[in-house]
Amino acid sequence: MILKPIEIPHNIPKNSQWLSGIGAGSWFCITKESSLFKINRFSKLGVLECSGLFEIDKSGFTLEGQYTFTYLSHCQLCTIIQNNKTYIFKSL
């Protein structure tokens, strides 16, 4: 398990978060697009693995607050914790 990469690759957004995984991990970056969220997942080296628009399961999440990507997160579904609340983002 790669707990933490040496440094964030220069070609991905600086606000990306590392999520370790079995054998490898990924960088995740989230932005707001109208009423949806765009999530990009990058490899350890900064290669874009997937990108898509996601809808959230409940209101209350804000990009301005601190949040953490957690498991289960992949190209179709991402889980984020903010203020002790778990938010599920599902790909459209």
Keywords:
globular, 0% helix, 7-stranded antiparallel beta sheet, 92 residues
Describe this structure as you would to a colleague.
The protein is mostly beta strands. The chain has one domain (17-91). It has no helices and 7 strands. The protein has a 7-stranded antiparallel β-sheet with strand order 1-2-3-4-7-6-5, with no helix packed on it. The protein starts with 16 loop residues before the first strand and ends with a strand. The mean pLDDT is 93.
Order of helices and strands: EEEEEEE
Specify Rg, calculated over alpha carbons.
13 Å
Task: Give the class from helix and strand content and strand pairing.
Answer: mainly beta
Task: Give the number of domains.
Answer: 1
Instruction: Estimate the helix proportion, in percent.
Output: under 10%
Task: Tell me the fraction of residues in β-strands, as a range.
Answer: over 45%
Strands in their spatial order, largest beta sheet: 1-2-3-4-7-6-5
Average residue pLDDT: 93
Give unreliable regions as ranges: none
- Supply the number of helical segments: 0
Topology (SSEs and partners):
Blueprint: E1 17-19, E2 26-33, E3 36-42, E4 48-56, E5 68-70, E6 77-82, E7 85-91
Antiparallel strand pairs: 1-2, 2-3, 3-4, 4-7, 5-6, 6-7
